[in-house]
Each structure stands twice: as C-alpha cells, then as structure tokens.
Amino acid sequence: MADLTRDDVAHLAGLARIDLSEAELDRMVGELGVILESVATVQQAPTDGVEPMSHPMPLVNVTRPDVVRPSLSPDAALAGAPDAEQQRFSVPRILDEE
Amino acid sequence: MTTDLTRATAAELADLLTAGSVSSREVTRALLDRTAAVDGAVHSYLHVDEEGALAAADAVDRRRAAGEGLHALAGVPIAVKDVMATQGLPTTCGSRILEGWVPPYDATLVARLREAGMPILGKTNMDEFAMGSSTEHSAYGPSRNPWDLDRIPGGSGGGSSSVVASFQAPLAIGTDTGGSIRQPAAVTGTVGTKPTYGGVSRYGLVALASSLDQAGPCTRTVLDAALLHEVIGGHDPMDSTSIDAPVPPVVEAARRADVSGMRIGIVKELTGEGFQPGVQARFDEAVQHLVDAGAEVVEVSCPSFSYALAAYYLILPSEASSNLAKFDAMRYGLRVSPDGVDAPSAEQVMAATRDAGFGDEVKRRIILGTYALSSGYYDAYYGSAQKVRRLIADDFTRAFGSADVLVTPTAPTTAFRLGDKLDDPMAMYLNDIATIPANLAGIPGLSLPSGLADEDGLPAGFQVLAPAMADDRLYSVGAALEARLTAAWGGPLLDRAPEMDEVTR
C-alpha cells in the first residue's frame, strides 16, 4: 500500500511524462513514502455508505447558442508556440521509427 | 486622511480621486517609485508594467476630466498574481515551463479590473503553479516578509501579500486553493478573502485544482477587500462553475460592521493544541472583542476535520496531475529536447521538457496524483478522499445550524524562517490545516490581523468562515473586529512593521 518502490516511482514518472534523473528518483521515493503514509489516513475515516463528493456544488451542463462569436486569430493562437509552420503547431515526430 | 499615497487605503484613494485631489497618474507613479525603492529586498513582483500602468492611469484621468461616470475604484492601481492570464503581460505561474509566455487573452477577472479603470502595476510572485505555503517553490526565487526579510510572506500568494504589506500596492489579486490568500494575509498582517466557490470567475485562472481554486482580494483593510470583491465577483458565462446570482452585499456589510446578535462558532478541532501560544492568545482576545460588540459565542465540533489535510493532499494532486498535463511542449511554453537523442519523439520531448520545466514540488504532486488515480489504487485513495470531503461538508452544514459564522486562527504559527520547512513537505503542508476545510466544502473565508504574537512580535491571523453565498457575513465580522482592534492598537497593525531599508534593485 504505502510502500512505494523506486520502480513504482519510475513507472509513475513515465505515465506522467516526466523524465526524472536517477538522483531525483532516489530522493522522491523517500519523500513520496512519507506523504503517502500520511494521506492514507483517509482510509480510517468512517466513510461507509457516504456518497463521494467531487465538487462543492451541483454541476449542471452549460450550453450556449451555436452561433459564431469572436475568438483568437490564428496568429494570436500560435504566438506562444515553440514552433509553427503554415498556420499550424509544428511538433516533433509522433510515431516510433521501427 | 493620510497624505502618503502609498500608505493610503483603496477606499481613501478612491475618495481622493473622485474629489480630484490627486490623479491616478500621481498615485500610480508613487507606487511604482515605492516598488523601485523596496522590491529589490521584498521581491513581490515577477514583472512590473510601468508603461502599461501609467497609460491606464492617464486614460482614466482623461475620462474623469471629461466628466464620464466612473467605477468607484477607477484609477486605483492593483497588482495581480502571476497565475491570472493577462493579455500582453507575461504570465509564468512562477514556473520555468511558462517563462516568457504572454497570453493572447485576459482572464475574466482581469478584464473586469481593466473595465473598472484600475491600472495593473504588475504580476506578483507565487509558489510554482500555486503549490506551496512560502513562495520558496517559485522558480524565480522567494518573496520576503516585510516584517522580517528572513521570513516567509506565506504562500502560494506571498507576492500578493507582501506587495500590499510593503505599500507597493493598496490592492492585489490572489488565488486560494487551500489557503493561498488567507495564510499569506495572516503572516504579513494583511487582509485576504477566499470567496464562495463559483463566486469569482475562474476563466483565465491557470488551474491548480479546479474544484478547489478560487480567486479573491488581498488588501490592508476589510473594506478594501469588500470593494475589490464586488469588482471581480459575479456570474461569468465563460466559467461553467460560476454561480448565476448577484454578488452578496459585501460592501454594505463592511460599512455596517454589525455583529450584534450574531452567533460566532468556535471550532473545537481548530483551536488550542497545535497552535502557537501567541497566535492562540490573539485569537482569544479577538473573540472577546466580538462578544463585547454584541455577538454570542457557541462551540461547535467538526470531527471530520482531522482527515481534511489527508483528503486535500489526495484530491489536489489528483486534479493537478490532470490539469498540468496540458504543459506538453507542443502549443506554448518551454520545449526541451532530450540530450543525446537523434530526432526525438514528441513523447521524449514532452518528458524532457517537463523534467526541465517543473520544480521538485510540482513533480512530487503530479506523481502523487498519478498514483492516487491509477487503477487498483483509485478507490483506496481518491475515492476515500472524496467521501471524506462529503463528511467535511456535512460537518460545516451541521455547524452552521448553530452558528452564523465560524472562527479559527488562520494559520497555526506566525511566519517561519525561509528554508525552515523546505526539505520537509509534510511540515509545509501543515500550515494549511485551518484553511483547507473551506476549500473542500466550497465555503467563503476571510483572514484579518489579530495582533502580534508575544513570542516573536510577528503578525497572527484571525479567520472567519461563512456558509456558501453568505460572503457578506465575513465582512460584517471582519469590519467589526478590525474597528475594535485598530482602536485598541491606536492605529493599523502595519504601522508597527519595521520601516523598509530602501534597497535598489
């Protein structure tokens, strides 16, 4: 349960797309272990039959009429892009080569 | 009325501006000069927009001269936390991953400030993506507490608390996910409000935990907080969680400052043990002031609060791990290629960028959230935390059955020294023990100064909590207490803060 291994943290970092260094992994195993042990106390709360609460108030779907309204220009939308080409975001290759 | 424009309250400045005794340019200039003199030492700002602020001031001065009807706070300058999108002004969230990013749009809240004619002085420092209680997790270095430059100004909004405490701005915007407006207010001797969840639009607020985040005012007086609350509050169709109802009568409540017959609930679980003696002593005195003003004290019990911190540190990382997935190096922000990889894939670039662009605390929380949401652990962690959240909301509902407001010390201690808790994440998290329950339940809270702790002569904070959409009660209690305390002290608490040595940048 609250006994995270170094391999677990490496796996989670991979899922979260964070390329942790070996030194970071070493440090984080210990820190996360302490935090997990503490937050695991939620399992001791008397929660039998309690309805989970995801949000402070009832959520209702919000819609608007399907009409065109002003929005960002392509230039504005691309202004912060690390790389852009032909009015598109230019990105590294997305497929493996093999 | 004070003549030093940097020490005047927003309400005083509004009167002076309306009367034509000063121009917005004069006020803005005075505050920018103050920043040039002291912010090298305090480091409240990540970015100062001298040109933009003066242009906005001139524009409002021209409109006033032309006899236009203006908003009450027109011409009163404000600082904005760097987590709010500001068109044309950098927005970094205290992170390297957004270094140099300039949003192409304004947050709704920012647009409302501009519409009201309030010059934006700059963007204030914060813990990276609002994760922290000290600003030490800012990628750009910590802000400092004007009461003692070796101490923290609170977090995550330590830039906004210190900017008002050091008289660089009468008003600032903060955001509060677990206490990031109220705890910084407490440790700097200032005022801060977290409005009811949904009371202020989150459109353009870079999300940390969407079900907890709420923006609000950071000020030096309760009335100023109410005035700013009224500007930024109210329904926004761009935020699906925005409450479609009028802003509660917060300014009227602050002006009336009436607590006669009000039932003040002391939360048994958030008093005494675990609170610094000087903080507790100022709290007890403040309660007595409220009794003297005609309020009635009741004790309430909120037994589930003992699980609040644990639930919060599961819910927040879970939501944050999802919200921060958008920092993928593709559309905006940093892009870093991994070392020694020819033609890296998008996935490899994303992982290298997030390693280089995120600080330790952000990485910790993303990984914790990823764990809490992963299959096989979801029910035990995130699921249990959501049930605890319900228990906490139920505790509040019961407590508000016998009390109109609840009161607690805002933070367990006064400002600690920079570096003291940096290597111990759990110790850092405990600062938010009294502020977190309000975010989990979505109710409003306000912190105001209760005095100086005997042990260290540093400010302590008094927190008022009210039911959802009863934000006006915060201001009734806050203003009544502030009036009595200010009279007892013979002036505002901040008058006792040390004069800042003028340090050039």
Automatic annotation (TrEMBL), chain A:
| Any one GO BP annotation for this protein | glutaminyl-tRNAGln biosynthesis via transamidation
The top EC class is ligase
- Kindly give the HAMAP family that the UniProt entry links to this protein: GatC (MF_00122)
Reaction catalysed by this enzyme: L-glutamyl-tRNA(Gln) + L-glutamine + ATP + H2O = L-glutaminyl-tRNA(Gln) + L-glutamate + ADP + phosphate + H(+); L-aspartyl-tRNA(Asn) + L-glutamine + ATP + H2O = L-asparaginyl-tRNA(Asn) + L-glutamate + ADP + phosphate + 2 H(+)
Q: How does it assemble?
A: Heterotrimer of A, B and C subunits.
**PANTHER family found in the cross-reference section:** GLUTAMYL-TRNA(GLN) AMIDOTRANSFERASE SUBUNIT C, MITOCHONDRIAL (PTHR15004:SF0)
Residue ranges for the region (Disordered) are: 71-98
Pfam families per the record? Answer: GatC
Q: What does the record give as the function of this protein? A: Allows the formation of correctly charged Asn-tRNA(Asn) or Gln-tRNA(Gln) through the transamidation of misacylated Asp-tRNA(Asn) or Glu-tRNA(Gln) in organisms which lack either or both of asparaginyl-tRNA or glutaminyl-tRNA synthetases. The reaction takes place in the presence of glutamine and ATP through an activated phospho-Asp-tRNA(Asn) or phospho-Glu-tRNA(Gln).
User: Per its record, what are the GO molecular function terms?
Assistant: ATP binding; glutaminyl-tRNA synthase (glutamine-hydrolyzing) activity
Give the superkingdom in one word.
Bacteria
InterPro entries referenced in this protein's UniProt entry, alphabetically: Asp/Glu-ADT_sf_sub_c (IPR036113), GatC (IPR003837)
Q: Which family does it belong to?
A: Belongs to the GatC family.
Q: What is this protein called?
A: Aspartyl/glutamyl-tRNA(Asn/Gln) amidotransferase subunit C
EC number of this enzyme: 6.3.5.-
The beginning of the lineage is: Bacteria, Bacillati, Actinomycetota, Actinomycetes, Micrococcales
Sorted keywords for this record are:
ATP-binding, Ligase, Nucleotide-binding, Protein biosynthesis
TrEMBL record, chain B:
Task: State the top-level EC class.
Answer: ligase
Q: Which family does it belong to?
A: Belongs to the amidase family. GatA subfamily.
Q: Name one GO molecular function term.
A: glutaminyl-tRNA synthase (glutamine-hydrolyzing) activity
According to its UniProt entry, the function of this protein is described as: Allows the formation of correctly charged Gln-tRNA(Gln) through the transamidation of misacylated Glu-tRNA(Gln) in organisms which lack glutaminyl-tRNA synthetase. The reaction takes place in the presence of glutamine and ATP through an activated gamma-phospho-Glu-tRNA(Gln).
- The active site annotation covers 81, 156, 180
Q: Might you give the EC number(s) for this enzyme?
A: 6.3.5.7
Looking at the record, the residues that make up the Amidase domain are 26-474
Organism in which the protein naturally occurs: Phycicoccus avicenniae
Q: What NCBIfam families is this protein classified in?
A: gatA
Q: Check the record and name the Pfam families matching this protein.
A: Amidase (PF01425)
Subunit note: Heterotrimer of A, B and C subunits.
> Mind listing the UniProt keywords for this protein, alphabetically?
ATP-binding, Ligase, Nucleotide-binding, Protein biosynthesis
Q: Name one GO biological process term.
A: translation
What cellular component GO annotations does this protein have? Answer: glutamyl-tRNA(Gln) amidotransferase complex
Reaction(s) catalysed by this chain's protein: L-glutamyl-tRNA(Gln) + L-glutamine + ATP + H2O = L-glutaminyl-tRNA(Gln) + L-glutamate + ADP + phosphate + H(+)
By what name is this protein known? Glutamyl-tRNA(Gln) amidotransferase subunit A
